[in-house]
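S., here's the first fold you wanted:
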Amino acid sequence: MFGEFIKQIRAQQRLGLREFCLDNGYDPSNWSKIEREVLPPPRDEETLRTWARQLGLKQGSDDWLKFFDYAAVDSGRIPDYVLKDEKLVAQLPVFFRTISGQKPSAEQLENLIALLRER
């Protein structure tokens, strides 16, 4: 998700891969591997913030948040804001059961949906 997302953002700005990399000091081969999801996104928060700014994302915007969510998920991490929210953390077992094909109860699903709508 992360690689495809950054590729779309770069394309929306009408920046070619080489042009973007030359302007920002990146190796086009490595950047291409990230866009093709051959390499995972960086885990370092400051690197991610730099990349987000270079891609023209505005801090706090929906695309900014997606950028960091996709980076976390593609790195095998749960986004930090989820872990800081006790209600969301309490619902993680339901979420994981759902995506692994196990069937949570109707009440558990309703609680999860309500919580997600709240957020």
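And the second, which I think is the more interesting of the pair:
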Amino acid sequence: MPNTVYISHVIDAPIEKCGAIMRDFNGMPSYHPGITKSVIEGDCPSDQVGCIRRLTLGEGFVRERLLCLDDANYVFTYEIIRGDASCS
């Protein structure tokens, strides 16, 4: 049986600024130093629920699917569907 982990975080910054940055599901390399590249698979736009991003880490990768994008409430949800990362 797979494990389920839920993480929620509050960022101390103006919500409009955070919402604009987080809304770009393909933009993680712009704010996370451990992510070297992000690619949306297929021809999906990065704000389409169901799109999959492949994040390249220093060593390895993670694939994640966008589950929810709620602009009115500044909420987005995603799931990790595959990962191959080395822990040093």
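Why I say that: The longest helix spans residues 15-23. Helices lie at 15-23.

Talk tomorrow,
H.
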